[in-house]
Specification:
The chain is built from 12 helices and 12 strands. It has 2 domains: about 10-220, inorganic pyrophosphatase (n-terminal core) (Alpha-Beta Complex); about 230-355, Diaminopimelate Epimerase, Chain A, domain 1 (Roll). Strand 9 and strand 10 form a beta hairpin. The radius of gyration is 20 Å and the shape is globular. The protein is α/β, with parallel strands linked by helices. The strands form 2 sheets. The chain has a 6-stranded parallel beta sheet with strand order 3-2-1-4-5-6. About 40% of the residues lie in helices and about 20% in strands. Its cofactor is Mn(2+). One of its GO terms (molecular function) is metal ion binding. Keywords: Hydrolase, Manganese, Metal-binding. InterPro entries: DDH_dom, DHH_sf, DHHA2, DHHA2_dom_sf.
C-alpha cells in the first residue's frame, strides 16, 4: 500500500511515546556533528526498521540538543516541507539513556560512538561510510566507502522493501543526503561512487524533483550560515577526535577561510568554543564552493598551548597525501595558529582517522 507522509510523522510521534514505556527500545543514532546525512539516516532507518515485524521499538535519536537543531539549516528546510517540527523528534536532552532498562543501538554515519557513555555492549548494528575505527567489535557491520551514508540506507531499502520509497519524505530526505554529501554527484571530488549515482537515480524516479534545483534549494538553506555568530558556525558541524590528551576537535565549515578568520571576534570565539568543549586544540577545515563546484580547501590549527600546536601541525605536515601548502596568517593569530591550503579531495572523513594516530605516537 502507498505510504503517505503522515505515516512518517505518525512514526515519529509514536516513538516519543515508546520512550516513556521503556520497553525493548532500539535507538538509531547518527554522529555528533549531526549533519544532514546523519539526521536523515537515523530518521529514515528507524522508520524503515519499525515497519518490519519485530518486538523492538525503534527510535531515531538525534545526538544534539534540541536548541541546536535550528543550526541544521538543510534538515530544518526539509522538515518544514513535511510539517515535521522539533516536537516530533527525540534529542539527546530528552532522555537519560543510562537510566533506561534495556536498549540497543544502531550507529549510522559513524562507527565509533563518542557522545554517549558506557554503551560499548549496546551497539548491535553499524551502517557507515567512514574508515572503520574497529570499536564495538561485536556489532553487525555494513561499512562501504561511498559518498553518503544515505546511499547505504537507500540500498538496504531498495533490496528489501522498494515500495517504501513511495513515501515522499523517505525518498526526498535520502536524495537530499546523497546530493549534499557528494556535492550534487560531482565525480571529480574523490567521494562520489557509482552506487551514489545509482541510488540517486532510483530515488529521483520516486520524486517529482529536478536534481539541480533540489541541490540549489539545499545550498540556499545552507547560506543562512553567513548570518550566524562565529561560535555558532564552529559548533554547527563539529566532531571530537578522541578523549585522549591533547583533546582535539574538528569543525567543518562551508565558507571561504579568509573571510571567516578575519572576523573581528574569531580569536575570542575560538577560545570561547574550546573552553566549552574542553579542547586543547581546535582544527578548522574549510571548503569553499562556487557555482556548486568545490574551489579549494584550507585547514587551520589553533591552540593556546605552543607544544600542542607544534605537535599537531608537524604531524599533519608528515601526511604527504594532504599536500599542505603554507598560508599567511593575520597578525593576531600568528602566535596560536598554523594555516594551510590542502588537497581538495581530503575532507574531514580522510583527516579524522589520521588524527587517531597522533595518540599512538
Amino acid at each position: 500500500k502507498m505510504l503517505q507522509p503522515s505515516g512518517f510523522l505518525d512514526f515519529l510521534k509514536s516513538s516519543k511515546l515508546n520512550i516513556s514505556k521503556d520497553a525493548n527500545l532500539h535507538f538509531v543514532v547518527g554522529n555528533e556533528s549531526a549533519d544532514l546525512d546523519s539526521i536523515v539516516c537515523s530518521l529514515v532507518y528507524a522508520y524503515y526498521m519499525s515497519s518490519n515485524p519485530n518486538e523492538e521499538s525503534f527510535v531515531a535519536l538525534l545526538p544534539m540538543y534540541r536548541e541546536d537543531f535550528e543550526l541544521c539549516f538543510e534538515a530544518s528546510a526539509l522538515c518544514k516541507k513535511f510539517d515535521i517540527t522539533t516536537e516530533n523528534m527525540v534529542f539527546i536532552d530528552d532522555i537519560c539513556i543510562n537510566s533506561l532498562n534495556n536498549f540497543k543501538l544502531t550507529l549510522v554515519d559513524h562507527n565509533y560512538e563518542t557522545l554517549l557513555q558506557n554503551i560499548e555492549n549496546k551497539v548491535v548494528d553499524i551502517i557507515d561510510h567512514h574508515h572503520d575505527a574497529l570499536h564495538h567489535i561485536n556489532a553487525k557491520r555494513n561499512i562501504k566507502m561511498v559518498g553518503s551514508c544515505c546511499t547505504l540506507i537507500a540500498e538496504i531499502i531498495y533490496y528489501n522493501k522498494r515500495e517504501f520509497f513511495e513515501s515522499k519524505p523517505v525518498s526526498e530526505f535520502l536524495l537530499a543526503g546523497i546530493l549534499n554529501d557528494t556535492v550534487n554527484l560531482d565525480l571529480h571530488n574523490g567521494r562520489t561512487t557509482e552506487l551514489d549515482v545509482f541510488m540517486s537515480e532510483v530515488l529521483l524516479g520516486y520524486t517529482e524533483l529536478d536534481k539541480d534545483d533540489y541541490f540549489l534549494l539545499l545550498k540556499t538553506a545552507q547560506s543562512e550560515m553567513f548570518k550566524m555568530s562565529t561560535r555558532g558556525i564552529l559548533r554547527k558541524d563539529y566532531k571530537l577526535v578522541s578523549n585522549a590528551e591533547p583533546q582535539i576537535g574538528i569543525s567543518s565549515i562551508m565558507l571561504q577561510s579568509e573571510t571567516f578568520i578575519s572576523r573581528t571576534d574569531f580569536y575570542a570565539s575560538c577560545i570561547d568554543f574550546m573552553t566549552i568543549k574542553s579542547l586543547d586544540v581546535i582544527i578548522i577545515m574549510f571548503l569553499h564552493c562556487e557555482n556548486n563546484v568545490a574551489i579549494n580547501r584550507d585547514i587551520l590549527v589553533f591552540s593556546l598551548n605552543g607544544d600542542h600546536l607544534n605537535k599537531v601541525t608537524s604531524y599533519l605536515q608528515t601526511q604527504t597525501n594532504l599536500e599542505l601548502v603554507y598560508k599567511e596568517l593575520p597578525a593576531n593569530l600568528k602566535q596560536n595558529a598554523s594555516y594551510f591550503s590542502h588537497n581538495i579531495n581530503c575532507s574531514r572523513k580522510i583527516v579524522l582517522p589520521l588524527l587517531y594516530d597522533i595518540f599512538k605516537k
